[in-house]
Amino acid sequence: MTLLDAFIHLAQPGSMLILCFGVFLGIAIGVLPGINTGTLMVLVLPFTFTMPSVDAVILLIAIFVGGVSGGLVTATLMRIPGEPNAIMTCMDGYPLAKAGHPGRALGLGNTASIVGGALSWVALVLLAPPLARIAVVFGPWETFALVCMALVLIASLSRGSLLKGCMSAVFGMLVAMVGIDPSSGVQRLTFGSVEMSGGLNILPVILGIFAISQLLSDTLNIEEENLDHVRANMKGILIRSRDYVLHGWNMLRSSLIGIGIGILPGVGATIASIVAYTTAKSASKTPEKFGRGSEEAIVAAESANNATTGGTLIPLLTLGIPGGLADSVLLGALAIHNLAPGPMLYTHHPEIVNAVLATHLVAHIVMFAMMTGGVLLFARLMLLSRVWIFPTVFVVCYLRAYTVNAQMFDIWVMLIFGVIGYGLEYARVPIAPFVVGMVLAPLAEGELRTGLMAADGRFSAILERPIAMSFMVVAVAALAWSLYRNRQPARPVAA
């Protein structure tokens, strides 16, 4: 399947319905309080088991795109970031809406979102294939070193300390090793449990670590629900042509920032929007308006966070390295569908890659249309109480975990990892390294053993591979930078 074939596939009624449904779900979850995009992707993942892999990828990418954009509505009308990446939008979207221009604020944010998404798609199409062609010649040592680099980068660049990130990654690797050793046939980390001898299924673990932990956290803080909102209207939802000239450079600059930061593992859309926001403020002729309803601020934040969608997919598709939390879920989804992310995905499953590329662009177009025409509907969704949402989500998680093997053991796995996930979040330990460690550990173990067998057990053989050593150097440099950064005294934050 070529890229053109992928677009033709999306034009079919069934595929387009799946895409539109995914975008709608993503936007709705971005608007609804208490549930994030990563959680939704985990909840939807079990329903993709019986779907063709291409359609499953279409659904998940559509949810991803819609979720990134949906946070704009609550950020603008309620001063609540429906998604973490909408934090900077809150600072100016809500004041502009409060001043009597909610449609204008939503229109600017919506337009900036599709511009950022379209530019990131161009970067994805241009950069991903050459990187994949380079990576496809990797041997076992290169692949092992790449996984090590990915784990270190995720751990060092994620929220929290380096130690916490590394602990999370190692914990994920240990979870992946539960069961029978593929080489020796010896049971490991089973603690005498018959159920654990077959290993821990990835779906109950992901449901627990993402969905159940989120439910626990939000349930304990359910009294913080804020219903102070601005009534939405359609006036100004479609911006004028001169606005593209006025804000064009800001959109381009912020989109490039989002693409660049999106490529970096573990950084994510939140950091991209912050960097774009501060850059726009520094370059603005009226910086005093920032925080008081600045149009430049809304454009910068929304362009950057949507541009990260394409940026994060570049290392995921070419190297198997997720850029953020939602990408980590997508990585797990590929693993569940027996699709190995990384350069071999281009070789063995080009239809999946092209489906991702086509869906990314079309989903942004659909998102723009839905946000433009359905803003009043999405604004009504904000009024739904989490008291009704949370029990529904829990029942769905329970049923999907049970249907994996029709065993209560998987239910207990989900609940236990839900508590573990809540504990990790409470301790400010990033979850993304855990997921990456769990998914990539079997690959790293297999490649390491292959390399050692080819080198007669000499680990020093990695020193003879320039590409592998380059990856290890990057990993060491990331560790050193993280240690240096953590030793610097914290700067006071201006009010």
What does this structure look like?
- This protein is 72% helix and 1% strand.
- By secondary structure, it is mostly helical.
- It has one domain (3-486).
- The protein has a two-stranded antiparallel ribbon.
- Helix 9 packs across helix 18 (408-426) and helix 17 (386-405) packs across helix 18 (408-426).
- The longest helix is centred in the first third of the chain and has 34 residues, at 102-135.
- It starts with a helix and ends in an 8-residue tail after the last helix.
- The model is unreliable at 490-495 (pLDDT under 50).
Based on the structure, what is the oligomeric state of the protein chains? single chain
Distance between the termini: 54 Å
For the report, how would you describe the main beta sheet? 2 strands, antiparallel
Give the strand order, joined by hyphens, for the main sheet: 1-2
Low-confidence stretches: 490-495
Number of helices: 20
Share of β-strand residues: under 5%
Order of helices and strands: HHHHHHHHEEHHHHHHHHHHHH
Q: Tell me, what's the shape? A: globular
Structural class: mainly alpha
Secondary structure topology:
Blueprint: H1 3-11, H2 13-31, H3 37-44, H4 53-77, H5 87-98, H6 102-135, H7 140-157, H8 162-176, E1 179-180, E2 187-188, H9 202-220, H10 241-263, H11 268-283, H12 295-319, H13 325-336, H14 343-348, H15 350-373, H16 375-381, H17 386-405, H18 408-426, H19 432-454, H20 466-487
Antiparallel strand pairs: 1-2
